[in-house]
Amino acid sequence: MPFAAPKGTTLIAPIGAGSVFDVALVREGTRTLVCKRLTSRARGEAAGRAAIAREARFLSLARHPSLPLLRRVGSDERGPFLLETRAEGASIRALVEGWRRRGEGVPPRLVAHVALAATTALAEIHALSDEDGSLALVHGDLGPDHVLMGALGEARFVDFGAARFRGMEATLSSGDRGTLPFVAPEVARGDSPANQASDVYALAATLLFLATGEPIAGGIDEGALLLEIGERGVQRALCDRAVGFGPRGREALRAALALEPAARIQTAKALASALD
Length: 276
Prior knowledge:
The protein is an alpha+beta fold. The chain has 2 domains: 10-85, 2-Layer Sandwich (Phosphorylase Kinase, domain 1), CATH 3.30.200; 90-275, Transferase(Phosphotransferase), domain 1. 37% of the residues lie in helices and 17% in strands. The chain has helices spanning 40-43, 46-61, 92-101, 108-127, 185-189, 196-212, 222-232, 247-256, 268-275; strands at 10-17, 21-28, 31-38, 70-76, 79-85, 90-91, 147-149, 155-157. A 5-stranded antiparallel β-sheet has the order 1-2-3-5-4. A 3-stranded antiparallel β-sheet has the order 6-7-8. The chain starts with 9 loop residues before the first strand and ends with a helix. The model has no long low-confidence stretch (mean pLDDT 92).
């Protein structure tokens, strides 16, 4: 079924389809926006409706240059939809694959820049709070497809269907564990919901992939990856081959990916400081 642009907008082109969202570019007046709709299957599931509500609520609470702006929330005969500003940039996965097609890894200087920009931006987003300081924003699904680098070298984050925040309504809670293998072991096991510390782990795993261009886990299917990450985490030995990180940076990356939460770098601010 073709993507249905909401009333008042014109479809430019579909740009993505997943298990929960269908995504397209639409034009509203002179602006190009991203429109997200639930897939036909997700529309009939409580988890799908909660995901679109979580993303809308998260973006309405958070204001930061690294996040899209929520322009409109609505519903029509095709179900609920979101209109957001478009986050321009190349994903970390696109960077790795683009350089791989040239027979090269991502240049060390670019890796270093991306690592510092992304950890700094995540630290700033985690620090956002409402007036009484109780917001505690969590992305919940950081990975190579959800971290972008803009044309001016700025880091941007997208896809907030698994986002969390303190005081979130029970109806919006989710067992979503993020994208394997970029998931903290305790989240993969189901022992803990995603939190700011697991965001740090997921970003560190994403940076390990960026810096090596190699698979960071050995599992070949979802079940095997879930078991591997839950029991052993990502392959931390790859930290020794992470380009763009000096000795202190490699140790910080390794510490951020420790199997046990208590042994890890806990905050994005601490990780950014170690990489600077």
